[in-house]
Amino acid sequence: MADISQSNQDFLNSMLQKLHGNLEGRFRKFVDDQVRAIEETKVKIKKRKGVIHFIRIFPQFLAAVENMLAGVADAGGSSSNLPVRRMVDREYDRIIRTMFDSLKVIARENPAVGVSGHLGAGNTSLLSVGGASTTTGSSATAAGDLEDKEVLNFHILLIENMNYFLEEVSDSSSRAPNVQNEVLDDWREDAQRQLAEHMGQYLNAVMRRPLGKLLEHLENVEAQLTNGKAPGMVAAQPSNSKTAFNKVLAGYDAKEVRKEIEKLKKRVEKHFGGGDSGGDDASSMHSGFGGSSGGGAGSKNLVNKVLRECEKFYGDVEMRIGAITTEVYGGDVLFEWPRAEVKSAFAAIR
């Protein structure tokens, strides 16, 4: 078009400009419809986990658009400065921002029966949305609230969706390796940050079952040391004495640790092992995308990823035990943390 605009082909230039403007308008309207559909997505109480439908569909949309832009470049061989590239990147940014914002809204909603959001007309949309899982968020941080089912569901939903976005958007982008897309890079960085944040909070919650008494003791001692209390003064407290610490550690022998890790595995599998939020049948048919895609390899990979983080958590606990044993109890305690059993137990469940 740039070449034509500099020529004397006024009619051809005018026609191309009109076609270009019409196509831009259609694309913007298309994205407007998708954004509206995402924002209006409702959820059903029974679909409480899994990848939300608009997160699942976006990588397909991304791959389709990038395939259409493949080979488009300016005279210097770059596409980053082309108007079409800038327009598409702006819409990527708008769609992803809406998805992430809507995901948090869905995760924080109080349980309530809703209907799946979808476009009002047309059935060929690349990004039409279906049902989604829901959780109830909570700002409570007390240890007693960490095990709250709705708080856990909040973190689970964010972990599943951010993990899926990171894996699938990376795969979609790799199909167009010459595209250096700063917009997608920025959102992948944001997704990684959110994944790490909610993984940490999830671990702090689920580890209360296998390691609750030990964590309470460690946190109590660590908090006092952080606040400047002398190690000897901490150890002089009846609840934090060497005898009390030995009693806590005695509850975590090899047999108990293996049993609790096996329970932990089953719980992680329950949380991440195959839930999906593909939407109800009517919405799925309307959108042109089939219903639930279930668990499969993606769910197994996420389960293994979470279990690796659980193993790291156990390793961190061992380090914390060692630090307190040395600093507060002079390195003299009766029981040792069963490191070898922890390692073998995690090796056995993956």
Provide the descriptors you would attach to this structure in a database record:
14 helices, mainly alpha, 350 residues
What is the domain tally? Answer: 2
Q: H/E order of the elements?
A: HHHHHHHHHHHHHH
For the sheet with most strands, the description reads: none
Mean pLDDT comes to 78
Overall radius of gyration: 26 Å
- Specify the overall morphology: elongated
Helix content range of the residues, please? 55-70%
Extended strand count: 0
Low-confidence stretches: 110-125, 128-144, 277-295
Category by helix and strand content: mainly alpha
State which percent range the strand residues make up.
Answer: under 5%
First and last CA, distance: 57 Å
Work out the helix count: 14
Describe this structure in words.
The longest helix has 32 residues. 67% of the residues lie in helices and 0% in strands. About 15% of the residues have low confidence. Helix 8 crosses helix 13, helix 11 packs parallel to helix 14 and helix 13 runs antiparallel to helix 14. With 350 residues, it is an all-alpha fold. It has 2 domains: 195 residues, no CATH class; 142 residues, no CATH class. The termini are far apart.
Give a short overview.
With 350 residues, this protein is an all-alpha fold.
Strand and helix layout:
Layout: H1 2-5, H2 10-39, H3 53-69, H4 83-108, H5 143-146, H6 149-174, H7 182-206, H8 208-226, H9 231-235, H10 242-250, H11 254-272, H12 281-287, H13 296-327, H14 339-349
Helix pairs in contact: 2-4, 3-4, 3-6, 4-6, 6-7, 8-13, 11-13, 11-14, 13-14
